[in-house]
Design goal:
It is a single chain. This protein is of the alpha/beta class. It has a single domain (4-117), classed as Response regulator (Rossmann fold), CATH 3.40.50.2300. 41% of the residues lie in helices and 20% in strands. It has five helices and five strands. The protein has helices at 12-24, 35-44, 61-71, 89-94, 107-118; strands at residues 4-8, 28-32, 49-53, 76-81, 99-102. A five-stranded parallel beta sheet has the order 2-1-3-4-5, with helices on both faces. Helix 1 (12-24) links the parallel strand 1 and strand 2 (28-32). Helix 2 (35-44) packs parallel to helix 3. The relative contact order is 0.19. The model is unreliable at 124-128 (pLDDT under 50).
Length: 128
Amino acid sequence: MPKHILVVDDDPDIRQILQDRLESYGYLVDTAADGPSAIEKLEQRTPTGVFLDIRMPGMNGLDVLGRIRARHRTLSVVIVTATDAAGLSQPSLYRGAQAFLFKPFDTPQIRQVAEQCFGQAHGSEREP
């Protein structure tokens, strides 16, 4: 069965890039544009993992991560961020993120992080 990934980012271009790349690797992908939508989708279906933007209006990524950890302690979460301002990585890892994907990212980085944190998508073959 294919692995299901939830991509949460307020930037529609970032959501689309991640969705397109992850689907091309064989993952099933769902997206959310904000924290409340992400929480709602997580209540409907628990994915294999989450790509989670840290800076979003309203409910930010750390708030969403806290909500995820309250209900899904072992769910793999990758923080997506443009900067590591003020040592953001340390509090995020402490709160349970498995890895970071720093913007701007390239295609090999997306695949590497996804496979490292979520495992290979079912039936996917590595590109040479």
